[in-house]
Amino acid sequence: MKTEGSIQSKGLPELLRALGRERSTGILTIQGRDDIVAFALLDGAVVSADALNQTMEDGLGRVLTEQGLCTAEDFAQLASEYQSGGGQVVDLLVERGFVDRVQLLEAVRSHTYRLCRQALGWTE
């Protein structure tokens, strides 16, 4: 089912609550003034979020450097290796010992949470 509309009338929080009550599964894409964010829902719960103007790697790198788990320079090096075909950034982070799997999953959750908070603040 495809639904279109404005969040000005009800607001994104109410829309997400309704999708949660309905236990919806799918992708909710919202377009703001400066970005487009897609929420992946599974049985009504947001399980991931992605932004058009911010890659997962960018957001993840920001979270990891803020948490002191990786320097910006180290992350840039891993991202460069990834772009040249050297594996996925998340795999490289674990393989090189920057983070363990639990820390990586927590950083991904933090990135998703930040995107959600950003989009929830949109009024149009």
Helix content: 40-55%
Low-confidence stretches: none
Mean pLDDT: 83
What's the SSE pattern? HHEEEHHHH
How far apart the termini lie comes to 23 Å
Main sheet: which strands, in order across?
1-2-3
Produce a short descriptive summary:
The protein is of the alpha+beta class and 124 residues long.
What are the defining features of this structure?
single chain; 124 residues; alpha+beta; three-stranded antiparallel sheet; 6 helices; 52% helix; elongated
Describe the structure.
There is one protein chain. It is built from six helices and three strands; from the N terminus they run ααβββαααα. With 124 residues, the protein is of the alpha+beta class. It has a three-stranded antiparallel sheet. A hairpin with a 2-residue loop joins strand 2 (36-42) and strand 3 (45-51).
Which helices and strands appear, and what pairs or packs with what?
Layout: H1 7-10, H2 12-21, E1 26-31, E2 36-42, E3 45-51, H3 56-66, H4 72-83, H5 89-95, H6 101-120
Antiparallel strand pairs: 1-2, 2-3
